[in-house]
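Quick one, tokens below:
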């Protein structure tokens, strides 16, 4: 019976060590994720909206054809949004930028060569407002050692408000 008691104590000790390791790893991971990346200062970049009209051809799944009806969805001319960024005020620490959409997918990943410009193709304004395409993008700036320096957030609200780093800049 003493042997069983000793095995039980060892098992409890092993389980306790596992729990302590898990909690330690989880709390360290949570702290690392909660560090706030600052916004890029406005002095280091310019941006402008390239608002054009493009023909939107419906996909095969969107096409509707009625033999006896005049209702059909053909090509439509709709407003299309691109955002142009020019980066000029960067120092030597800035090595690379990544653009991520709301889903976290990397849209662009480039090394910085000053003067650097970026064209962010956001899509048709109706699709952005209706959340069919991504309505939020974040540009992260990194050092050569892959340390995040700063970010730029660009978001379009459902009502069409354009927010850059949380500040209202107009409506699309």
């Amino acid at each position: 019976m003493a042997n069983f008691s000793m095995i039980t104590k060892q098992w409890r000790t092993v389980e306790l060590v596992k729990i302590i390791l898990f909690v330690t790893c989880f709390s360290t991971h949570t702290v690392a994720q909660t560090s706030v990346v600052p916004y890029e200062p406005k002095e280091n970049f310019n941006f402008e909206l390239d608002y054009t009209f493009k023909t939107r051809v419906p996909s095969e799944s969107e096409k509707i054809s009625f033999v006896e009806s005049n209702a059909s969805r053909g090509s439509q001319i709709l407003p299309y949004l691109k955002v142009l960024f020019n980066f000029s005020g960067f120092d030597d620490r800035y090595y690379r930028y990544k653009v991520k959409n709301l889903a976290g997918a990397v849209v662009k990943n480039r090394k910085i060569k000053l003067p650097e410009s970026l064209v962010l193709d956001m899509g048709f304004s109706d699709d952005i407002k209706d959340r069919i395409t991504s309505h939020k993008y974040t540009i992260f700036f990194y050092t050569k050692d892959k340390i995040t320096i700063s970010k730029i957030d660009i978001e379009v609200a459902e009502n069409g408000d354009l927010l850059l780093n949380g500040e209202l800049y107009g409506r699309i």
